Structure formats: C-alpha cells, structure tokens
Model the fold of this input.
Amino acid sequence: MHTTAEYLWVDGAQPTQRIRSKTRIVELNGGPVDPWSFPEWGFDGSSTNQAAGDDSDVTLRPVAVVPDPLRVGGYLVLCETFDDAGLPHASNTRARLRAVLEQAGDDHAPWVGFEQEYTLFADGQPLGFPKDGYPEPQGPYYCGVGADRAFGRKMVEAHTRACLEADLMIYGVNAEVMAGQWEFQIGYRGVAGETADALTVSDHLWIARWLLHRIGEDFGISASFSNKPVSGDWNGAGNHTNFSTRAMREPGGMSAIRDAIFALQTRHAEHIAEYGAGLADRLTGLHETCSIDEFRSGVADRGASIRVPRQVQERGRGYLEDRRPGANSDPYRVCALLIETICGVSGATATSESPRASAALVGAG
Ligand code: ADP
Ligand code: MN
Ligand code: MN
Ligand code: MN
Done:
C-alpha cells in the first residue's frame, strides 16, 4: 500500500538548529513498521547550512518512526544526517548522544523528562499582548483559565492530541507564567513497565517540536523557542531537564543524587556553553532562574540551577531537575552532557555505526 512518510531531520542552522521535513511516498507491504521499512534518502544540504552548493547531497537515514497524526495511514520518520563518507554529519548531535550512551554502558539506565516551554506569536506579538504595549502583569496566566488569561489553547489542545496519536511520551501540558507562553512535558510518566531512555525521549521532543510548528501553520500562529521572547519583567522560556540514573531511582538514591549534583557543579561552564543560544538573557537570577554565573542546588528551590523536588527528598530517591537548559536547547546535546558529567563518560566521539541498531520498533497503523 502506498502512503506518506514525512522525513524529519535536524538542520545545521546556527546558533540554533531547527527541525525540517519533506514528504516521500513509500510502499509498505503490511506487517510491523520500523525504521528499516523506509529507504534512505537525501536532501540539498546547501539550503540547510549542512553542505556547500558544489557538493550538496546529505544522506537521511531513518532512525525512529511514529504514526503521523495529521495524515491517515502516514508516518513521521525521524532521520539522522550523514556525509558522503558515510560519517555522521557535523550537525548530527544524535550520533554524539548514541556514542555517549554506548560508552556509559547499560548499568546507569538514564531516564529523562523534558519540560518544553514555548511562546505563541501572531502578527509579531505574543498571543495575549495588545497590538501596542503590554497586557496585565504576570500573575494570572500560569495555569490560568478564561479568555482573558489563556491565549492559544485551541492550538495547544490540537498539539496535545497529535502527540498522543503519534504515540509520543507526552506527560502533561500547562499554561505558563507569561501571557501566550505554554509548556508541554515529554518523558518519564511513572507508568509501570514504561522506561524513558534519553535517546527515545529526545527523539520524541524533536518530533513534538515539529508537530507544534506544523499545527501552528493551520492556526496562523508560530511557536517560538526563544529563551527570552519579551525582555523586561516577563519570564523567559526554558527546557527544564529532569534526569535520573538507576542508582538515583533505587532505595537510598539520595546519595547518588548528591554525587550527581557535585559532578554538575564542577562542570557548570561546560553545560552552560551548550544549553542554548542567548541563555544569559534568561538566566538572570530573576523569574525563577539562577544567575548564569552561579551554580546552586536546593530542595523545591525554583531559583536554583538544580532543583530536587520535595517529593524526591521525602522518598529519599528519584530524580533531579536541571533548570538551566533554554527552550531552544538541543535535547541530544543536553542529554549527552548530563550523561557525560553524571555517569563519568568523557570525550565520546560520534561513530559511523548504524544508528538503526538502537531504533525503537513501533506497530503498524
Ligand atoms: P515542574 O514541577 O518542574 O513544573 P513538571 O510536572 O512540569 O515539573 O514535569 C515533571 C517532569 O519530570 C516530567 O518531564 C517527567 O517526565 C519528569 N520525571 C518524573 N520522574 C522522573 C524520573 N524518575 N526520571 C526522569 N524524569 C522524571
Ligand atoms: Mn513544568
Ligand atoms: Mn515551566
Ligand atoms: Mn520544572
């Protein structure tokens, strides 16, 4: 049967990479669908900051597949990019995460959950902002309800539904502190038998970002992942990254959490350097952030770099929240760094080994 496959890949834009896509008609012959069901493909890298014009072909290799919630019978096919020597493209940060995971081994079993904040824009203004000037100051918008508090919910609902129908590990959704700002979480859901490995969750976040941009087209609304979409007394947008290893989740895990925080403290600058462009505008020490030059941790402290949720402290095990990553951070890079630092892996380099070995299997339809 012929159907649509939307090939997604992360481009080479600087300083912030973005997701791109194009459509291929594929013939699937029934049975389970996995990344191998889809052919390798290519694209013009000179138009995505991934190649020069005279040598422009970059290879797309499918690595994860989910049902396409927007096209009946179709699939979203997330790809890694490879150069003509068959090596991961310099912009292929997923390959780096694979290499780090391989070095770390299976024992750490890192699980992740992202809180992706974003801001909806129409006609150059965040939703809820009047044409000129500002709305009522922050206060009523966080988790607010009502046409004077929540702006863009129809689109947010469509996105939530789409994430569910794409079998993404969406965890929740809420309106944020600034008018027109929202958050969705993707990752560990506390469901028995469900894991949340760093590669799968990062893939899901990139696919969820693509869905947000794509659904925004239908609403005439664009989603911004800017760290500080409006300057002044308005919250920035982050991508809080919740992280645990097996040791942190097991009884007595609090000591592993403390060790992790200590390790993170020693590499604060390295993490900040890769946690998103324009981070200094957001990490000011105000608006529920810790200043970019400072490293602090605390239980239930939303002004810290690393927060240990109160519930985790009470249970004596669980996870930590890294509050530093910006909304525009690359989940592959954030996870690679966290695993390097917390699991003691150093200097992993991306290899050409087939990414398909780690790709998740999904059922047909
Ligand atoms: P906050 O109180 O910071 O707003 P949220 O409720 O928005 O937190 O999100 C909680 C996040 O924590 C989710 O992304 C979820 O996937 C993640 N999470 C929960 N437990 C774990 C765990 N054991 N390991 C990693 N991430 C976790
Ligand atoms: Mn949250
Ligand atoms: Mn938030
Ligand atoms: Mn948070």
User: Anything to note?
Assistant: The mean pLDDT is 93. The radius of gyration is 20 Å. DSSP finds nine helices and 14 strands in the chain. The pocket of manganese (II) ion (ligand 2) is lined by residues 115, 183 (CB under 6 Å).
